[in-house]
UniProtKB/TrEMBL annotation:
GO terms for biological process: L-proline biosynthetic process. InterPro entries: Aminotrans_3, Aminotrans_3_PPA_site, Class-III_PLP-dep_AT, Orn_aminotrans, PyrdxlP-dep_Trfase, PyrdxlP-dep_Trfase_major, PyrdxlP-dep_Trfase_small. Pathway: Amino-acid biosynthesis; L-proline biosynthesis; L-glutamate 5-semialdehyde from L-ornithine: step 1/1. Its cofactor is pyridoxal 5'-phosphate. This is ornithine aminotransferase. It comes from Asanoa ishikariensis.
Amino acid sequence: MILDDVLRTPAAIRDAERHTAHNYHPLPVVIATAEGSWVTDIDGRRYLDFLAGYSALNFGHRNPVLTAAAHAQLDRVTLTSRAFVHDQFAEFCSRLAALCGKDQVLPMNTGAEAVETAIKISRKWGYRVKGVPADQATIVVAAGNFHGRTTTIISFSDDPDAHDDFGPYTPGFRIVPYGDLAAMAEAIDETTVAVLIEPIQGEQGVVVPPDGYLPGVRALCTDQNVLFVADEIQSGLGRTGDTFACDHESVVPDVYILGKALGGGIVPVSAIAANSDVLGVIKPGQHGSTFGGNPLACAVAIEVVKLLESGTYQARAKENGAYLLAELRTLIGNGLLAVRGRGLWAGIDVDPELMTGREACERLAERGILAKDTHGSTLRLAPPLIIDKDDIDVAVAALRAILK
Ligand SMILES: Cc1ncc(COP(=O)(O)O)c(C=O)c1O
């Protein structure tokens, strides 16, 4: 009670909940400022950010290169709509296309919009190029997927929270077990226009598919004339130690879906990237967004792509990610049941006999570490890629302490 009188956090949380739909269950932390891998709450307590905006903050909070680009663009022009061309657009599109090794990009804002874009493009490609009969297109997806929250996307989610009570659902999707090539082959037929998967399932708890799965999907798609659509919204842009998670197995999908870190943690920026034989199916008036590809978004995203062109963030994620995963693995049998991951991205299963994932996150927050549970007793750890080994040590020590 005494603390409640002194601290501003409890009242701020009550205020935040008063006029808010409860579609989130945030940890009791009210953030006021942030820099790099650290945030500070309204009571002056500092926390290491091991969620990084679900990987939207790959380059750290307020990365100076990115905030400088945003400030400069705020003083020039922020929004034109795509009714006109602006002077940041060409550079953004050409740099992002080159990063992806593709001819073209189509910019949107949120991840879900980019997934919707990929679904529309795949269907249209299916009708116009592959020759699928009208309205018969099917897309094969994986069990345990997370691709966003729109009504079409949740139609093929097998998570009851995401899915139930939001019908009627969009037809045209077939769900197969993740990592199971035989089931995928079985599900593909002449109506199939695309396979849509996450190269690593983030929301599911950083589930890495078996070696050979992604090349197998690539081969199936090529054999069956089906588009391989990789949702790299969370796994891409350096997180796993390469530019894309698909790179680990030298796999090149037909369509990349990108979001989150593309906006540098400043503005929502998403996009799909593909070659013109695929993206060329879309014509004026058939798809778009008022804010998609706006000057502010492009100015920031140009700098994001430049950061990735240097390769230093990917290298850092690889080196420090290996360190993080090795340190976490020392806790298996000491409160953790399993550790999965690649690069600076880990899913850890806390022994449910000890505590729930939510309780683990609350205890970590008390020790100055921010992380988020996903599905029961699993935690997803995804610090900014700029994190150093000392800060990783701080987080692992806190985890060790709460698991005792
Ligand atoms: C793999 C994946 N796809 C799509 C999305 C949806 O992105 P957004 O929340 O920006 O709509 C997410 C978000 O977590 C994601 O992880």
